[in-house]
Amino acid sequence: MMIAQISDTHILARSSDRAEGRRRADDLRRCVADINLQKPDAVVHTGDIVQHGQPEEYEHIAELLAPLEAPIYVVPGNRDNRDALRASLGSQVHMPETAGFFHYTVETHCLRLVALDSTAPGERKGVYCEERQAWLHQTLALAPDQPTILLIHHPPFDIDDHYIGGYRRPQDAEGLAAVIRRHSQVERMLCGHVHCPTQRSWAGTTATTMASVAVDVRKGIDETRAKSRPIYQLHEVSDEAGIVSRARLLVD
After folding, report:
1. Which of 12, 107, 217, 230 might form a disulfide with 16, Cβ 3.0–4.6 angstroms?
2. How do residues 176-185 score in pLDDT, each as one tens digit?
3. For the chain, where are the E strands, in sequence order?
């Protein structure tokens, strides 16, 4: 199985006259075209889908994502608006069955995908309250033998000096870690938000972040090598190697 991950696209409305709006749309358009060439089984977007959470922005990204040939699964970021996301992308991406938190599971692949909502209206930092922790524990307990990947926007751990105290309440991140430690089937956590690539062992699993698809806000990338080329992430799953993650740097 192969999963393509995009994150932090920060798309603006098509009508925006800001130069970065046009560039971000082109960055994503190029990634979508290259993803189709790789023929992944699924595409995941780990949040900050648009810049301001406005319907016009979601309409724009709906057009940009339309050519994708693989199913796409998303989680919201702190810049997203759940209601506008549901209204504009509901026909294109997997949606929760109920209103409220943007949580859901995907059971149609060899790995189970569990989407987590770490956002709250008006809040930039991560939130993962006791109600959300209970949902995750119950959800993981339903399939204890099924290898699982978690999708979440906010990494629940510090990253050097770049990202410290990323959750509004430290006990939220601690509670999330405690839940994951109880469920050994969680093989990977895919995160967004920080715009830079990292990989580490955390709470008994492996957690990764990735460079933002929006080149103008990405961090931790050698621009001498990358030369402002878009980057996305590929996660290849096999019985022999487990999950191997690598960055896909687009050619000029």
Report:
1. 12
2. 999 999 999 9
3. 2-6, 42-45, 72-74, 104-106, 112-115, 148-152, 186-191, 198-202, 205-209, 231-238, 242-249
